[in-house]
Structure formats: structure tokens, C-alpha cells
Amino acid sequence: MEKQSNESSITSSPTHSQTQVSRLHSLLQYCVIAPCLVLAGICFSSFGFADARQTGYTHGSSYAATRKVPFEVHIESRCPDARDCLQKLVAPAYWQVEDKVDFRISYVGEVWEKPRREVTCQHGMNECKGNKLLVCSEKHADSIGDALDFNTCVLSDYERVPDEGLIKECAQEHNIDYQQISDCANREEGLELLISSVERSVAVNANASCTVRVDDNVWCSRDNYEWKCPPGRGVVENLVEEIRKLSEDGEDSTRYL
């Protein structure tokens, strides 16, 4: 009986070769499955990261899709309304929302194709010269913020435009190379930049200096020392609030004509 039991035990126990095969089989399964799991994890992480970049979501933050809101001002260099517009509304608002806007400055005038391609300005040739200096500053300044501050500085004494002393003083104050913008304004580059800028103003029907546009719609304008828009539009806080709302959930904001 004891012998029979031992034989039964021997028969039911796996052989050495069977054990090796089983281990090899397990190893092969691991070698196949493990890389698949790693690859799946990488793919999942990549999709999650890409989605976070598109939506503005980062780890530890709440979901908040943001976008750069178009913010534009149309001005003339010898215009008191443009001065007031920059000083009282545009510049103070811009510096509160600079990271939320795609800001640009455009100039008001009229483009002629004959007898040669040229620009005329409401306040004469001095204004056209001033406009060229300003539009050149937007191209050659280190940032659009520097160009805005330069414009605001120049227009604070708009009756002197395009006086060299005024332009040099404002350029030095706002880290802009005077010689660079002067050379630009006195060459074909300055004329072409101004023509392009005026054509843009004409294309969007921004014919008054100053016209403020937000998200490609007129927000407010200033003429004859008065705001020409619904009450409250000439207030910095309201403009800032609108831009922030458009940046965070633009589809739900009010559209302006």
C-alpha cells in the first residue's frame, strides 16, 4: 500500500521539464503583456497632455478654456480724442489684460492710388508724418506694450507731433530706438506700413479717431471730447470685465455691433 501511494504521488507531481516549460510560458506572457501595458500608459498620458494644452487645463487647476481676444484701437497722431482714448481707456485696460488679448494699433486716414500710392490724413501732412513714426514703433518696439506706451506718450502732447524732440523723449522713455523708427518713417517702409494700417481701418469701417474694437466688434468711439457709445463703455473696469469674460467663455458673451 505504501509503495502504491508513492507511485501515485510521483505520477501526480510535475516533472522538471514540465516546470521549465511552464515558467517559460509565463515569462513569454510577461514579455508580451508588459510592453503593451507600458505603451498604453504612454498613449493615455500623451492624449491627456495634448488635451490639457488645448483646453488650458493643468494638474491641480479647474477647467478653464481661454483664448486671446482681439483688441484694437484706431487713432490719428494729432487728435485730442485719440489722446483721451489712449490715456483714459485703452492703455489702463490693456495693462490689466495684456495676457488675454491680441492687441494692435491701427491708423485712420485715406489711401489714394493716383497719381501715386499715398496716404492723406485729417490733420494734414504733419499728422501723416506722425502716423508713420507711430506705426514704425509698433514694428520695431520690443513689445506691443512698449509701442502702446510710446503712442500714449506722443499723443499726450499731440499738437507738437511730429516734433523731433517729443519723439526722441518718448522713445527714450519707453525703450524704443529713435533712429530706427525715424529711418523707417522716412523710407518706403514707413509709407507701406501706414498704407496697410489705414487700409485695415477702412476695411472694418473704423473711420473715427478714436475707435475701440473688441473681439472684432466696435466697443466704443470718442469724438469731440465725448464717448460715442452706450453708457459705461468708456469705463476701464467695464472694458476689462468684458475682455476677461470673452477670454474665458467667449461664446456666452454679448456681441456688439
TrEMBL record:
Primary subcellular site in the record, as a coarse category: secreted
Cellular compartment(s): Secreted
A molecular function (GO) term: oxidoreductase activity, acting on a sulfur group of donors, disulfide as acceptor
Keywords (A to Z) from UniProt: Glycoprotein, Membrane, Secreted, Signal, Transmembrane, Transmembrane helix
Xref: InterPro entries: Interferon-induced_GILT (IPR004911)
One Pfam family linked to the record: GILT
ATP-binding among keywords: no
Cellular component GO terms held in the UniProt record: extracellular region
Signal peptide: none
Transmembrane segments: 27-50
Family (UniProt): Belongs to the GILT family.
Protein's name in the database: GILT family thiol reductase
Lineage, highest ranks first: Eukaryota, Fungi, Dikarya, Ascomycota, Pezizomycotina
